[in-house]
């Protein structure tokens, strides 16, 4: 195994487990002693947008000063601090807990942005001959962690208390810093010099995709266990199966050799699968049907983000970390919109109609996938900007 690969893929697992903590706590935060309403719960995701923007703007500049390891270490420390804040929130009253979780999501956004910028770039460099597969598998590891993390959290909740899981993750983030970090890649541009207009279509694709992912992932638990009135375990399982379907799709497509898979066609078909799930889920009532539908939604969401990342880095090799940071920032902004935005929006529309209208996101997603995967954009030959 190449130096630093263990740190890269371990960080991916920890990032996925940490990222899903607030969605996994959805049914707990809606109940006493917290009793957050839909708007208050949705607003918890807003600081992630701020953290994501900060990290997207800073990733290239930090890389130019501290190198890839500096970006990685700052991200790990931010994630550890976020998990410690979540632990503190478990032992406070409702008002203080809300403030602590808001601070937690801000640090999580920063940590997610910096860590993912570092590890996606490192994966593309460690396995340069198969960069798309390496990035896809890395994001499969992230998705696998998001799939099992809600179940682990539920296990802690029913035994010693839910705070045990974020506490364990916080310690793991600190221990990760002891692993060998991937060697620095080639010199890159950072700061304002690294920004290119040609990055924007990739960021736009990820932003819209992440709104869809956030709409599924952040509200699966609530839709199943609150809106449909099904057991809390069913809500946790729906969330786990969504991420599990995403993980399975990424592993399957990541390991298939390039000669056997036309990746561009899969990239173009993915938004149509998301649209079908948005249309189907509001029509379902039973737990089994909803669980299957959220699994299918995860499969449909599986490859759009890692393929966008791989195509974007390939098109901007001299600004790889800045490109990765921008796309991770776009992911977090979209997740924040899909998570935070759906809270206040439910004062006007029920979640079912919101899902139905969300199927329209497939239109720009298909066009952007077609545009970004053209050889002129996907292989580093970009227009003058």
From TrEMBL:
It is a multi-pass membrane protein. GO terms for cellular component: endomembrane system; membrane. This is MFS transporter. The keyword Membrane applies. The chain crosses the membrane at residues 42-59, 71-91, 97-119, 126-153, 165-187, 199-220, 232-253, 265-285, 291-314, 326-345, 351-370. It is found in: Endomembrane system. InterPro entries: MFS_trans_sf (IPR036259), MFS_Transporter (IPR051788). Keywords: Membrane, Transmembrane, Transmembrane helix, Transport. Belongs to the major facilitator superfamily.
């Amino acid at each position: 195994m190449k130096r630093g690969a263990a740190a890269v893929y371990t960080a991916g697992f920890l990032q996925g487990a940490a990222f899903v903590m607030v969605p996994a706590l959805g049914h707990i935060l809606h109940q006493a002693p917290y009793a957050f309403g839909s708007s208050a719960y949705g607003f918890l995701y807003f600081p992630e947008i701020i953290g994501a923007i900060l990290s997207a703007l800073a990733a290239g500049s930090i890389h130019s000063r501290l190198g890839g390891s500096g970006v990685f270490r700052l991200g790990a420390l931010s994630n550890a601090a976020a998990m410690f804040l979540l632990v503190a929130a478990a032992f406070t009253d409702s008002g203080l807990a809300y403030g602590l979780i808001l601070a937690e999501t801000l640090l999580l956004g920063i940590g997610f942005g910096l860590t993912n910028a570092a590890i996606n770039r490192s994966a593309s460099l460690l396995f340069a001959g198969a960069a798309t597969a390496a990035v896809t598998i890395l994001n499969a590891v992230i998705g696998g962690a998001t799939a099992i993390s809600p179940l682990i959290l539920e296990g802690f909740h029913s035994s010693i208390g839910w705070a045990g899981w974020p506490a364990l993750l916080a310690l793991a983030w600190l221990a990760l810093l002891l692993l060998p970090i991937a060697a620095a890649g080639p010199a890159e541009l950072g700061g304002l010099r690294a920004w290119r207009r040609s990055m924007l279509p990739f960021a736009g694709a990820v932003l819209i995709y992440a709104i869809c992912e956030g709409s599924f992932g952040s509200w699966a638990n609530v839709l199943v266990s609150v809106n449909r009135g099904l057991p809390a375990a069913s809500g946790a399982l729906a969330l786990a199966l969504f991420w599990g379907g995403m993980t399975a799709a990424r592993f399957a497509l990541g390991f298939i050799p390039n000669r056997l898979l036309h990746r561009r066609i899969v990239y173009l078909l993915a938004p149509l699968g998301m649209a079908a799930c948005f249309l189907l889920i509001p029509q379902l009532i039973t737990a089994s049907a909803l669980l299957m539908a959220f699994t299918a939604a995860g499969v449909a969401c599986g490859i759009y983000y890692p393929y966008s990342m791989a195509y974007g880095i390939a098109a901007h090799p001299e600004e790889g970390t800045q490109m990765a940071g921008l796309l991770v920032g776009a992911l977090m902004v979209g997740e924040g919109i899909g998570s935070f935005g759906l809270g206040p929006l439910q004062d006007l529309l029920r979640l079912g109609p919101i899902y139905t209208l969300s199927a329209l996101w497939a239109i720009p997603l298909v066009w952007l996938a077609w545009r970004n995967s053209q050889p002129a954009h996907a292989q580093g030959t970009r227009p003058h900007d």
